[in-house]
Amino acid sequence: MGRPLSLDDLVTKRVVDALKAGMGRKAAAGASGIGWSTLKVWLAAGRRGEAPYAAFLAKVEEAEGKAEREVVDALMTAIKAGKVDAIKLWLTSRRPQEWAQREGVANDSDDDADNASIDADESFTRSVLAAIQSRKVGT
């Protein structure tokens, strides 16, 4: 069994940089040379307010927030450009009860299913784009 690593500036920087790049916590731990269990212990100590782990937790959460902000900005740019997949992703992630895909719609042929899907996509896109446009204009 190896000796336990201590939290220092270099490890903090590695974890924070990995999180800012969009990695999850487990991947960030591995990329930073620490074990996932070590990271979880440090974060738990931070939630309890223990020094220096509380400051580390704050940096971790800030890095995750920055990464999420970049993803949301890119997603919103795609939505404003009318990208159907981006629109669906946002709606189904943020409003799953209203927008999640429903199972159980049967069609007689694959061609009918493809055409119905295209029609639904176009209708869906038009309605969402109209909603976005109305927000821009303030109506």
Looking at how many chains there are and whether they match, the oligomeric state comes to single chain
Helix content: over 70%
Main β-sheet description:
none
User: Uncertain regions: pLDDT < 50 for 5+ in a row?
Assistant: 105-109
Element-by-element helix/strand order? HHHHHHH
Globally, the shape reads elongated
Provide the domain count.
2
- Mean pLDDT over the full residue set: 81
Compose a concise summary of this entry.
Helix content is 73%, strand content 0%. With 139 residues, the protein is mainly alpha-helical.
Secondary-structure map with pairings?
Elements: H1 9-20, H2 25-31, H3 36-47, H4 53-80, H5 84-94, H6 96-99, H7 110-137
Helix pairs in contact: 1-2, 1-4, 3-4, 4-5
Describe the structure.
This protein is mostly helical. The protein has two domains: 9-66; 82-137, no CATH class. The protein has seven helices and no strands. The termini are far apart. Mean pLDDT is 81; it is low at 105-109.
Tag the structure with descriptive keywords:
elongated, mainly alpha, 139 residues, 7 helices, 0% strand
